Amino acid sequence: MSSLRNHDIPALRQLDVAHHLPAQSSYALQQELGGSRIITHAKGCTVTDGEGHSLLDGMAGLWCVNVGYGRDELAEVAYRQMLELPYYNTFFRTATPPPVELAARLAGLLAKAHGGELQHIFFNSSGSESNDTVFRLVRTYWMLKGQGDRSVFISRHNAYHGSTVASASLGGMDFMHVQGGLPIPGIEHVMQPYPFGEGFGEDPEAFAARAAQAIEDRILAIGPEKIAAFIGEPVQGAGGVIIPPPGYWQKVEAICRKYGILLVADEVICGFGRLGSWFGFQHFGFTPDIVSMAKGLSSGYLPISATAVSREIVATLRASGEEFVHGYTYSGHPVCAAVALANLDILEREDLIGRTARDTGPYLAAAMAERLAPHPLVGEARSLGLIGAVEIVAEKGTNRRHGGGGKAGPIVRDHCIARGLMVRAIRDSIVMSPPLVITHAQIDQLVDTIAAALDDAGEALS
Ligand code: PLP
């Protein structure tokens, strides 16, 4: 068995270049850098690489390690479940205890947040798979309702819904569409509700109305009878932490109801406390028909995602007598579900979501307003709960970018990493999404490190 601590890092980095293809990466850069940074262990909010550098994890892994690293109880639950029953499928009119219990637990949480319509849960392993499930389920639903012409999905530019063929097509990232000839037919993208980027200087209410109107205009242009669903992240995460203006989601919901269109909330990032509420739709006050969840569901300890579906959709499937011919080997994986249940226990027991809403979220917002917003390179510093972004601009008071855009973010990010903070660059913004267990002192470190990295970058950017 390989040792947990004494890895041969230079050898691993060579093997990484020789054999390992990391996700969403340039393999030329991987080679040029002599391999990936090998992260070997982590505790709380800190990850450590094989060369002994410790980094404050400002991204909770990839927006997912909500309860922080090093939770023995999650490891113990996984161990016990593996001994008892490591695997069984849900294809043969069979199920195992953990996914059934988790489905009921999620239905209870959703009932509190939503009013009881979202009572049925389909399990998958990733956010992408959950959105593929949404894609097939929605089209199946309309077909069974005798409205098979309702097949078009509306999404937003710069949305992220995953990396499989259907989920990347639902996403609105042009650079992802280029590879693989996406999007697949029947998916339309409309403007995103991005106040700093697309509504700069505009009254927020007027901007919310304009962004929602773009959806209605597209629906009318295509024909409302052809539209199956609208899908959106309550806050767009990978697009750059795009926080919509007040009123936007109510308007979107009203449009969906007006034309009988299903409303899908992609809560893969927002769910399980990120915004200081269990779900993003709760924060924004709308009621989706379908919800995709992943990441914080297990805090990333094991891969699991869940697609919550309304009573009406399941009633239609039941009335039809048809099978839903969709599912994965690992749908309802017992070990992943057991870990997710224990993760929900931690979120509840430690009141991590209440703490985000009342304490750490406002503390982060205040620190950003005080120490990042005034920086000469910062156009906007925004956050909601424990997710945030810092927009880097060439001229304060404007949203004009350095050298046409996209160059400043990676420079500042690299300075952050050199100073011991892991954050992500998305074009010319730095985004953050730390574990929900982050302390005030660590929030200070996060914010002060970004401020110092902006100072470091000043020369390169001037
Ligand atoms: N949806 C959203 C909102 C996401 O942020 C992500 C991943 O970041 C996904 C879906 C895809 O999830 P996964 O990477 O688990 O497939």
Account of the protein in words:
The structure is a single chain. The longest helix is centred in the last third of the chain and has 22 residues, at 440-461. Helix 4 (72-84) runs antiparallel to helix 14, helix 5 (97-114) crosses helix 14 (334-349) and helix 16 crosses helix 17 (440-461). The protein has helices at 9-19, 27-32, 60-63, 72-84, 97-114, 127-144, 165-170, 174-178, 195-198, 204-222, 248-259, 280-284, 311-320, 334-349, 352-371, 408-418, 440-461, and strands at residues 39-43, 46-49, 54-57, 118-124, 152-156, 187-190, 227-232, 262-266, 290-293, 305-310, 378-384, 387-392, 421-422, 424-426, 429-432. It is globular. The protein is of the alpha/beta class and 462 residues long. The chain is built from 17 helices and 15 strands. It is 43% helix and 16% strand. A seven-stranded mixed sheet has the order 4-10-9-8-7-5-6, with helices on both faces.
Labels describing this entry:
single chain; 462 residues; alpha/beta; seven-stranded mixed sheet; 15 strands
